[in-house]
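quick one, 177 residues, struct below
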Amino acid sequence: IAIEAALIAKHQAPGLYRRFGFEKLQGFKADVWSKIKQQALAEVIAPVASLQAADVDRQVIKAALGNAHQAGVDDVLAFKVQDVTKTTAAAATGVMVSNPPYGIRLEDEHFLRGFYPQLGGVLKQQFHGWQVALISADMGLPSGLRLKPARKIPLFNGKLDCRLFVFKMVQGSNRGE
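---
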């Protein structure tokens, strides 16, 4: 998610810094491809916002750092190992996109019953003024968070039927609105 966001923020074409199999095909026109790449490079800009990514798993962050480097966005993306339930907002307003645990495995259900309300509390206390978008296959996520989504956008994560739940975080209560 963070790497895709960085690509969008930089107006950078995906795969700009990688090689493709078609470059070895007979009839490949290197001069045409070079012009296309030069045009794409000319469109890359510096992002206007800070981009940060976090995960509780150090190995996930290590892999993400390597992927960000390979994608050419490690210069604008800051990674850290951090538990979301112990985080604070980096600015007064912003956008958070995340894919919290879904509970696909049966043993996760007990964990999620405690985690979702804790996550909801952090979002309410630390991220008022932000837009929060959470991808989940768990259609009960909003009620577990004790938050009402402003939007529910259907999408698939692989074969999993998911929703992108979008929450507009406000200070205090959102009841009656």
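DSSP finds five helices and six strands in the chain.
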